[in-house]
Amino acid sequence: MSQRVAIVTGAARGIGAAAARRLAASGHAVGVVDLTEDGGRETVEAITAAGGKAVAVGADVSDPAQVDAAVKRVVAEFGPVAVLVNNAGVLRDNLLFKMTDDDWDTVMGVHLKGAFLMSRACQSHMVEQRFGRIVNLSSSSALGNRGQANYSAAKAGLQGFTKTLAIELGQFGVTANAIAPGFIATEMTAATAARMGVDFEEFQKASAARIPVRRVGTPDDIGALVAFLAGDDAGFISGQVIYVAGGPLD
Ligand code: NAP
């Protein structure tokens, strides 16, 4: 079998970088998509240093023309896309009465429209191959979180999007699943701590105390599940939302 091609968005750092490394380690050639090509270089270097194949591509996932160009670039480099991980994300937290139109539109644009545009651009490759895996990054915030009306709506929306893709594309050998992480230590959660004026170490300790396994998550906790869902063994898992949070959530 020829090498499967994966695209991971927002793969310059954090969860996306871990997912890209894991997919490369399990034999995929990986398109590392992030806002700038430069941003993705470190992830590509880590993958190639470990003997894998990857290319960095700059694109804003909320922009249709940039998405189409990015997918074309990866296809030209490695061949048709078999695995798509919609991971790119931003926060624009604010209580509802302070949330601006731009806070709302930016979060919807990156998470929801970005996942839609990327999935639409990649699906024909998957359908033609009669094999595909789409993994969308939702969040425990989909269940509701103070200060995140925009983000929780987008992350809940991604769950409905995922289930619909599973229904439409299943007959072509394509599965779609969502991973909904709890607290994962990345620049995103570090920025939240900074915004709240809390030391990041203290923030993690306080969060860990509330998590049943008594630790916060790492990007690799999510990367490992992405790699599993992308593989042959996960072919009968589709339309699911898997919470990865160190314990059950309400
Ligand atoms: P992160 O460290 O902030 O990384 C997000 C990446 O996405 C960054 O490299 C960022 O690029 C990129 N990005 C932002 N906007 C983009 C756009 N329009 N087009 C392309 N790339 C874009 O975040 P993370 O913590 O790894 O989170 C990854 C995903 O998991 C997100 O969808 C997030 O919502 C979700 N998640 C995270 C947690 C958590 O606790 N960390 C929990 C639940 C869900 P720049 O650096 O250039 O902005």
Strand order of the largest sheet: 3-2-1-4-5-6-7
Helix content: 40-55%
Provide mean pLDDT, rounded. 98
Evaluate the radius of gyration: 17 Å
Tally of extended strands? 7
CATH hierarchy class name of the largest domain: Alpha Beta
Estimated share of beta-strand residues:
15-25%
Shape: globular
Corresponding CATH superfamily of the largest domain:
NAD(P)-binding Rossmann-like Domain
Order of helices and strands: EHEHEHEHEHEHHHE
Q: What is the domain total for the residues? A: 2
Task: Kindly name the structural category.
Answer: alpha/beta
InterPro entries: KR_dom, NAD(P)-bd_dom_sf, Sc_DH/Rdtase_CS, SDR, SDR_fam
GO biological process, one term: monocarboxylic acid metabolic process
Organism: Virgisporangium aliadipatigenens
Protein name: 3-oxoacyl-ACP reductase
Question: Which descriptors apply to this entry?
Answer:
SDR; NAD(P)-bd_dom_sf; 16% strand; 250 residues; 2 domains; oxidoreductase activity; alpha/beta; NADP
